[in-house]
Amino acid sequence: MHPLIPVTAEGFGVEILLAYATPDNFTNRPVYAPAAGCWLHAQAAPLLKKAVELARPLGLTLRILDAYRPTEAQWALWNHTPDPEFLADPRRGSTHSRGVALDLDLLDAATGVALDMGTAFDAFTPLSHHGVTGVSVEAQRNRLLLLGLMNAAGWDFYGNEWWHYQMHDAARFPLLSDTVLGADRMMG
């Protein structure tokens, strides 16, 4: 049995918009099948639930942009843009391909509008790094708010991407391929 569990909007109280199941990503084409679903390692799920609980009283909703990413998808992304500052070399493995990482942003729960984070998701620029001052003060506050919520819930962060969070000691989890779920998640 595989260690992944489905993450649904209803079950977790999140919005899900998987960027790689649409052409709205840096490859300009879907990488996952539209019905791929959102998955996370069972040991990471309680950390996501904790982050949701911390965000709710603040009037915020977490929006998941990526979670489990099969190793085949990591190769597709790497083959398109082999940039080790923003993508894990698939020979080493991505924390997404272990099911223990999330890419996400924050929404105003009342309006459903995304908070300004200063750059788009997957903007491969130094302005996407944590702690930069080249984005608006509002965006800096929003990034620090997301960082605080995720850190308080037990997540670690990646310094080059304001949107990426992973479990501490993520490398201890095995890499998982497209076949682990018993269905092809990749686009043909």
TrEMBL record:
<keyword id="KW-0482">Metalloprotease</keyword>
<keyword id="KW-0378">Hydrolase</keyword>
<dbReference type="GO" id="GO:0008237">
    <property type="term" value="F:metallopeptidase activity"/>
</dbReference>
<comment type="similarity">
    <text>Belongs to the peptidase M15D family.</text>
</comment>
<dbReference type="GO" id="GO:0071555">
    <property type="term" value="P:cell wall organization"/>
</dbReference>
<dbReference type="GO" id="GO:0160237">
    <property type="term" value="F:D-Ala-D-Ala dipeptidase activity"/>
</dbReference>
<protein>
    <recommendedName>
        <fullName>D-alanyl-D-alanine dipeptidase</fullName>
        <ecNumber>3.4.13.22</ecNumber>
    </recommendedName>
</protein>
<dbReference type="GO" id="GO:0008270">
    <property type="term" value="F:zinc ion binding"/>
</dbReference>
<feature type="site" description="Transition state stabilizer">
    <location>
        <position position="69"/>
    </location>
</feature>
<keyword id="KW-0224">Dipeptidase</keyword>
<feature type="binding site">
    <location>
        <position position="96"/>
    </location>
    <ligand>
        <name>Zn(2+)</name>
    </ligand>
</feature>
<dbReference type="InterPro" id="IPR009045">
    <property type="entry name" value="Zn_M74/Hedgehog-like"/>
</dbReference>
<keyword id="KW-0862">Zinc</keyword>
<feature type="binding site">
    <location>
        <position position="103"/>
    </location>
    <ligand>
        <name>Zn(2+)</name>
    </ligand>
</feature>
<dbReference type="Pfam" id="PF01427">
    <property type="entry name" value="Peptidase_M15"/>
</dbReference>
<comment type="function">
    <text>Catalyzes hydrolysis of the D-alanyl-D-alanine dipeptide.</text>
</comment>
<keyword id="KW-0645">Protease</keyword>
<dbReference type="GO" id="GO:0006508">
    <property type="term" value="P:proteolysis"/>
</dbReference>
<feature type="binding site">
    <location>
        <position position="164"/>
    </location>
    <ligand>
        <name>Zn(2+)</name>
    </ligand>
</feature>
<keyword id="KW-0479">Metal-binding</keyword>
<dbReference type="InterPro" id="IPR000755">
    <property type="entry name" value="A_A_dipeptidase"/>
</dbReference>
<feature type="active site" description="Proton donor/acceptor">
    <location>
        <position position="161"/>
    </location>
</feature>
<keyword id="KW-0961">Cell wall biogenesis/degradation</keyword>
